[in-house]
Amino acid sequence: MHLHILGICGTFMGGLALLARELGHRVTGSDANVYPPMSTQLEAAGIELSQGYAASHLQPAPDVVVVGNAMTRGVPAVEYMLDQGLPYVSGPQWLAEHLLGARHVLAVAGTHGKTTTASLLAWLLEDAGLEPGFLIGGVPGNFGLSARLGAGRYFVVEADEYDTAFFDKRSKFLHYRPRTLVINNLEFDHADIFDDLAAIQRQFHHLVRTVPGSGLIIHPQGVESIEQVLAMGCWTQRQSLALVEPEPTDAPAHPSTQPEADWRAELLNPAGAEVRLHRDGAVLGAWSWNQTGRHNVSNALAAIAAAAHVGVEPQAAMATLERFQGVRRRMELRGEVGGVRLYDDFAHHPTAIATTLDGLRKSVGQARILAVLEPRSNTMRAGVHAKTLAASLGEADLVYLFAPADLGWDAAAVMAPLGERVRVHEAIEPLVAEIIKTVQPGDHLLVMSNGGFQGIHQRLLDALQSCP
């Protein structure tokens, strides 16, 4: 079968292309934005890429066109597909019909942490010998690719709430029918398709309805937005998660007003590099690893609980976590030049920005952190997070904001609470120049964007190499 994928370089669609290729199909694709790591994965797999969305890309006609959710009416390839009556399907539907039906699906949903949690979960299953398949919106370091079929019965999928396609406005995750579901967290996002948090919660309620009674739903304890979803109806066993910090020995006792969570991760140091695991009130052991931040500990706890549901012993899981190699573009160290460390991170929501910076701060202590942010997501560009953005950057010593002329809000006004710590630039060249002028040995440069950011990471590294 010949599949042509429209929007093939998106994280989901690129992974789908790799899976279809592994199944033996001929795969080609079109995209307007081609950049690593997805483009290099596709090229290495022998998948032919075409720039743009020309009707000619569908000539001769493929057996089916797989349509990414970035496609809209008016796109030449879409109009040609409809006029010619070519068979077409959404990516999530193709995945469900051709891959997921016979598998035990472990889905990771939520506003933040899906990619890291899914990567952790796939690695826990892999190290336990279960040979899982997976489709993840990033590249886990332990695998070096974002998707594979796997040889076992288990399939890990990053379950996105974004809509499916221009002809299917349901959330993608409604196609996946998981037996093990992780809901990491739930906040308002994707303002381009959802009017409010309640609209997102309704989609999560529909997801909960698809989990069988013999399955498992894993979620953090006491998160109101998630509890409201589950209160709409839940027919599945639940397990709760919590993060705790050890109380000082001389601290007065403060009894909790809610029952103890089923799974608890106890931070043994502020950066979250050492963690003790509890289940049902009993200590199971501890692990240490090279990840930082409370958010990553939460991700790991959810992955341990999900892996346990399919038979991975928590003690074995903790040992496996110590060999987790992280995920590309999630606090990925891109290079160190002249004592300056440069990280690439996907954070694009104030909560994710704040937790990422908090983890880095607790790891580096008093060393300077220079945060470089591109507000690229539709929600961010629309100014939905304008009221909380400056506060989310509070741990940074200096903040550099890329604010092109077509940004939908007044960047200087929004960032004013940061005072003299912030610099706003409309173009990449002066932004890079000012960073290079300011940066010092021992600094940590944290670049945050959910896109390519015009290659700023390599531009900065190259400029640092050229410094006297």
Automatic annotation (TrEMBL):
UniProt keyword Signal, yes or no: no
Keyword RNA-binding annotated: no
InterPro entries, sorted: Mpl, Mur-like_cat_sf, Mur_ligase_C, Mur_ligase_C_dom_sf, Mur_ligase_cen, Mur_ligase_N, MurCDEF_pg_biosynth
Reaction(s) catalysed (UniProt annotation): UDP-N-acetyl-alpha-D-muramate + L-alanyl-gamma-D-glutamyl-meso-2,6-diaminopimelate + ATP = UDP-N-acetyl-alpha-D-muramoyl-L-alanyl-gamma-D-glutamyl-meso-2,6-diaminopimelate + ADP + phosphate + H(+)
Stretches assigned to the Mur ligase N-terminal catalytic domain: 2-99
Residue ranges constituting the Mur ligase C-terminal domain according to the UniProt record: 329-451
Domain Mur ligase central: 108-307
GO MF, any single term: ATP binding
UniProt enzyme class: ligase
Gene3D superfamilies xref list: Mur ligase, C-terminal domain, Mur-like, catalytic domain, NAD(P)-binding Rossmann-like Domain
Pathway(s) the chain acts in: Cell wall biogenesis; peptidoglycan recycling
Residues that coordinate or bind ATP: G110, T111, H112, G113, K114, T115, T116
E.C. designation(s): 6.3.2.45
Keyword vocabulary terms for this entry: ATP-binding, Cell cycle, Cell division, Cell shape, Cell wall biogenesis/degradation, Ligase, Magnesium, Nucleotide-binding, Peptidoglycan synthesis
GO BP terms: cell division; cell wall organization; peptidoglycan biosynthetic process; peptidoglycan turnover; regulation of cell shape
Required cofactor names: Mg(2+)
Role noted for this protein: Reutilizes the intact tripeptide L-alanyl-gamma-D-glutamyl-meso-diaminopimelate by linking it to UDP-N-acetylmuramate.
Family (UniProt): Belongs to the MurCDEF family. Mpl subfamily.
The protein, known as: UDP-N-acetylmuramate--L-alanyl-gamma-D-glutamyl-meso-2,6-diaminoheptandioate ligase
